[in-house]
Amino acid sequence: MANIQQIAQKAGVSVATVSRVLNNATSVTQKTRSKVESAIKELNYEPSMLGRNLRKSESRLMLVLLPSISNPFYNEIINGIQNTAISNNYNILLCETDSKPERENIYFNMVKNKLADGIISMDPTVNMQKLNELAENHPVILCSEYEEGGCIPYVTIDSELAAYQAVKHLIKLGNEKIALITSDEKFLYARLRRAGYERALKEFHLPIREEWIYHTKELEFQNGVQAMRILLQLEEKPTAVFAVSDTLAIGALKALNGGLKLPHPIAVVGIDNISFSNMTNPTLTTISQPMYKMGLLAAEMLMDRMKGKKVESMILDHELIIRESTMG
Amino acid sequence: MANIQQIAQKAGVSVATVSRVLNNATSVTQKTRSKVESAIKELNYEPSMLGRNLRKSESRLMLVLLPSISNPFYNEIINGIQNTAISNNYNILLCETDSKPERENIYFNMVKNKLADGIISMDPTVNMQKLNELAENHPVILCSEYEEGGCIPYVTIDSELAAYQAVKHLIKLGNEKIALITSDEKFLYARLRRAGYERALKEFHLPIREEWIYHTKELEFQNGVQAMRILLQLEEKPTAVFAVSDTLAIGALKALNGGLKLPHPIAVVGIDNISFSNMTNPTLTTISQPMYKMGLLAAEMLMDRMKGKKVESMILDHELIIRESTMG
DNA sequence: CTGAAAGCGCTAACAA
DNA sequence: TTGTTAGCGCTTTCAG
């Protein structure tokens, strides 16, 4: 592999001039430029980013932390991040933590080691203390999951309101026994969505019964299946279910169809509007999050941060999408 | 941020010694080591990978090219790649090309520019000519999609056989009118799967009718829905459908349920065994690919390549998973 | 066992 | 407009 020296020699100019050509500096005569360019072609030269990165002390890489790419919720967010990043000459490194602290540490170190310029975390399981420490010296943005009252800027939706609206929709349909399938309440979104669920129930004077609230360990389909099966074993069965993610809701739907015959179909609502939610049978009523926009904004915020600008947290709008799973 | 110089100064040793401590060289007395270590702690020092990478002329990053992460088929493969990479001190950079050549070029350049040490391509839309050129000077592995008779090592399954077995399964169930939903035949897997489909039909003296073969533009759910709708409009409707991916098959299933009443249910088989395939109603019969293993092997092959070893292409086993969509 | 020094490939300040 | 040169932070050879 040729280096900048060899190009300079071949073209009969200095390395500085080659560098100027490489970086489209204006102060190069067309004649010199051509000389350099033909030397580059001749030697099949590709400038090394390693040298440039060291010199400029940047990597133009941003890290995107997420627990697992198997949750399609992240797909569109990632698209948003990626498109924004690329158009700003950045690249993204997708980092699956699998909710393992060791993994997380690897990625934190990449930032500390200058191998990445900043980090967008979408991982609810992230170690907030460590992330806060990192954020003192490095650009960090939270996306979707965030810390209340924390100092890291975030972009998210109003989870409490979303849950409230989802449950209210179920109530308006005449349901009075509404179950909640949620995940571990160590996660803020789970606490907020539960709060929204309870607010709706209270507002309509409906009972909040612990046995109708099921906590899953993860957000995989199977967790939703499992949850629904348990709820169906109750003496007093719910007539409707609100799940805090589409993956759980889809699992619940699966447990419902082909299961025991019930006097009434059980209505189901999810959150996220993942693409698969329109392929289930029945199709899933859900709250749509502006995933692409969240990703786009998170990336913009990160880049502002990297430039040293201050950025404000944002809360985006969501929308109830009514489909077959709540149409009896 | 402290650098190695400052540590050396603080510890009263040379930078060489600090470097030795950093890299666990044996030839450092415990006493010197402690001095250095406490200096590191005191200054909160983190070694810069930028310097190391330049010096060693490696990035310990591998690129993973795929058309879109929204196809869950890639999830498990990526897990396999990632786990292998991490345990070898590598990181992966997921690269969505969106089937756009500009995107692809960005990633190829990262390898040329030394920003990445090698590349695993799972992108059927990849520009094979350019990839071959790249492979002359850089480590490249193909995963899933490959080039027949090409010189880039690959890991894949026997697509022709998989398709043959899927269709044979439909035939054994008594189906004689079997449609094929496939994608553009510029892709090798599409050609191979069609070949398997035709081999099975011929073997049982069943007709191959062009109107029962539908080509989709992409592999999204919606493409499958669309395809099935067209097939249902035919005068002579097929009684079974083989789709070359689970996403298409799931779309087909969706078009089928809630649609017009048919004398017999239409059987559907897919390929991939993505996690959704078990959540549809009915659940999907499919050919399971060993996705995790494919990813694992691809990563190992790439690392061997990066060490300069020769590697052999591999064809892995698949398996027919029978579920409700072919159980009438 | 430790230090001095060269150098990886590039950019940018300064000089000409 | 172009060249000279210092140096980004690290590893590694060679000497001691």
From TrEMBL, chains A, B:
Pfam families: LacI, Peripla_BP_1. Keywords: DNA-binding, Transcription, Transcription regulation. PROSITE patterns: HTH_LACI_2 (PS50932). It comes from the Bacteria. SUPFAM superfamilies: lambda repressor-like DNA-binding domains (SSF47413), Periplasmic binding protein-like I (SSF53822). GO terms for molecular function: DNA binding. Residues 2-56 form the HTH lacI-type domain. PANTHER family: HTH-TYPE TRANSCRIPTIONAL REGULATOR GALS, LACI-RELATED TRANSCRIPTIONAL REPRESSOR. This is LacI family DNA-binding transcriptional regulator.
